[in-house]
Amino acid sequence: MHRFHVxxxxxxxxxxTVSQAIQNVDPQAxxxxxxxxxxxxVVSAKAEAPLLTALAEAGYSAQAHRQRD
Length: 69
Fold this sequence. Notes:
alpha+beta
């Protein structure tokens, strides 16, 4: 499971675009979004790097987001 902070993600359309970008890399990926915090949770067997690259290519640069306990 991966968590990414996507600063430019602000609406449902953004979330759809972000989800599509992830699913272009891994069609089996599950993407869940939190628009208020601009965070997505991705369940995928793919490594973090290609997912981040796909997001950047879609116009949504992202960073790994580590949840604080």
